[in-house]
Amino acid sequence: MSPDDTPSREASEARAIALADRYLAVRRRTESLARPLSPEDQGAQSMPDASPVKWHRAHTAWFFETFLLTPFLPGYRVFDPAFAYLFNSYYEAVGPRQPRPLRGLITRPSAEEVGAYRTHVDAAMVRLLTTSPTAEVIERLDLGLAHEEQHQELILMDLLHLFAQSPLEPAYRETSPPDRSAATGLRYLAFEGGLIEIGDDGPGFAFDNERPRHKVYLEPYRLADRLVTNGEWLAFIEDGGYRRPDLWLSDGWAAINEQGWDAPLYWRREENGAWTVMTLSGRRPVDPHAPVGHVSYYEAAAFAAWSGRRLPTEAEWEAAVRAPEGQELRQTSDEAWQWTASPYGAYPGFKPGAGALGEYNGKFMVNQMVLRGGAAETPPGHTRPSYRNFFHPAQRWAFTGVRLADDMSALDRETATPAATFLEDALAGLTADRKTLPAKYFYDAEGSRLFEAICDLPEYYPTRTETALLRRIAPEIAARVMEGAALVEFGSGASTKTRILLDAMPQLAVYVPIDISRSALDEASEALRRDYPGLVVAPLVDDFTRAVRLPAAARGRPVTGFFPGSTIGNFAPAEAEDFLRGAHGLLGDGAMFVVGVDIAKSPDVLVPAYDDAQGVTAAFNRNVLVRINSELGGDFDLDAFDHRAVWNAEESRMEMHLVSRVDQTAHLAGREIGFNAGETIHTENSYKYAPEMFVELARRAGWKVAARWVSDSPSFGVFALAG
Ligand SMILES: C[S@@+](CC[C@H](N)C(=O)[O-])C[C@H]1O[C@@H](n2cnc3c(N)ncnc32)[C@H](O)[C@@H]1O
């Protein structure tokens, strides 16, 4: 090394001071966590798994004393040789120790003496860090600080458990838990999988169990974008989730029966029937929007089974968090550690280090499950995407939570709609001589919500009428459906009418809802899985005009198609014929197809149904422009378009338009879209049929009409087609 390469004295001094500062900041945080506690609080041990706060404070000092000061600081004098026995946790190579379940019996040293011990160690550590911060010292310092941060979280976990045992149920802190009322709907994000890498990729500190980085092959999968909420857990409880052995792993079923568990740890049903939960802020009402916490792996796995989903593997979790699409995942490391389906084991090529520190992680690599992420009580900056936490499957006093995952079927992948299609369709329609937009683009999450609101409007007769008719005829339809059949629904939305058929057809084994709106499909599938536990729900996010193959769960079964809502009326008759022909191909020979068709009637009934007094249909119509602005970067002035519904007698259809109020120019993808005042964008057709006309159309598409039912006025038809 030339003299020029020698770091200057100031630089190495500054580095040493920075190290000491970093050390002291972590140590101070431990003390500040303990500060609100009395010496009595600090000495008690609530169960063998938990340790007294005083013990955590002393053990973390012992760690620095044993692994840094004694070997590396010349002339270091241990504070008290007896502490080696009292505060060694599990290091066999260092010597014998106080048994863990008996840590609460260590009444001496006092909490105050432990404070003096920490001060003694801190002074020596600052000396070490400012005099000989060798690479080995710095490496052990990083480990010691990460270790102390782990104990900071343990202090709060153990304390919560302790306070939960007290009849007074004291609050550790006075602050209220955050308001989660804004928690939004659940989305499943899709990840391609393939050959990916997991594990520490440097350059900062990581534990040995996060290495070596290595390759893992993943099938395509989906991951929930948020954690399971208390509200969802309540539904699981109320559905008898803790009483149904079919949902539980054998060990889990044994555990809940031995322990008498019927809810997450710290939950209590009060006399008025409401649930409360013990928190660090004392006992509080269970917030249905907050993530569920303090559940065991067994409970997480049972909940996933009840939901018809599964837990993610740790590799799926890590790959998702690192993927660009993973930016949309919420609550990854700031709410609760997330149980994974992965047993805690060594990564390929893992070798524990030599000596006592080699015992840090490696010897626990059996009979535990990995948790990923981080919790609200995890020290800031402590965790990272490769971080592997681990607990025994029955333990639940840690800050644990649940994120669900799902397989992505080959069909989901094959038929996923390209993102570019919306833009292409919008540009093609808006630059045509007579401007149009395809009706299917009404339906994002908001569009689906608005459609459900339309169904409840007094003017919107089709939903009411069709529902009443389906209730009446469901037994007749059910009589034509074979045991073990699959029901395939096109444009299923909230799957509300579906329930009429499901209730009438216990013989159904599989339900395949197909919809272009992922949010509607996810919500509906979740609810149906809950309410029809024996039914396999295999949803398909797709344009129903393009679906070419049924999901594996439905193949080889007798199939019944279902297309309610008069959605078929959105097609022009020639397109409807093509659609029916395509559906025949998808459903297969021998299938039955139940189709709801609105019947032509007086404009006095029709027009208000598409132009309601409250303006809900107008908002639904404008939603396509809202989507063009937000998803495609358009700049349409929403207030400059009126909603219009007109009856076109010649074509026998209701039309919806957006009418430009003024001369104006909007922009989309660099194109100018000019409008004259009064010019319209034609957004939807709803063709109305005379029953005979529809029968004819179905025949031309290769179907026979096996039965038909037409309601009294306002008339609506349901046709059972046989293929
Ligand atoms: C009129 S709603 C009917 C909803 C429900 N079946 C009912 O009867 O109340 C139409 C549904 O079809 C879906 N949809 C519209 N066009 C679609 C397309 N091309 N492919 C798949 N789903 C579509 C919408 O998202 C919406 O859920």
TrEMBL record:
Residues 424-721 form the Histidine-specific methyltransferase SAM-dependent domain. Residues 191-332 form the Sulfatase-modifying factor enzyme-like domain. InterPro entries: CTDL_fold, DinB-like, EgtB, EgtD, EgtD_Methyltrsf_superfamily, MeTrfase_dom, SAM-dependent_MTases_sf, SUMF_dom. The keyword DNA damage does not apply. Pathway: Amino-acid biosynthesis; ergothioneine biosynthesis. Keywords: Iron, Methyltransferase, Oxidoreductase, Transferase. The keyword Oxidoreductase applies. Pfam families: DinB_2, FGE-sulfatase, Methyltransf_33. Residues 25-142 form the DinB-like domain. This is Dimethylhistidine N-methyltransferase. The lineage of its organism: Bacteria, Pseudomonadati, Pseudomonadota, Alphaproteobacteria, Caulobacterales.
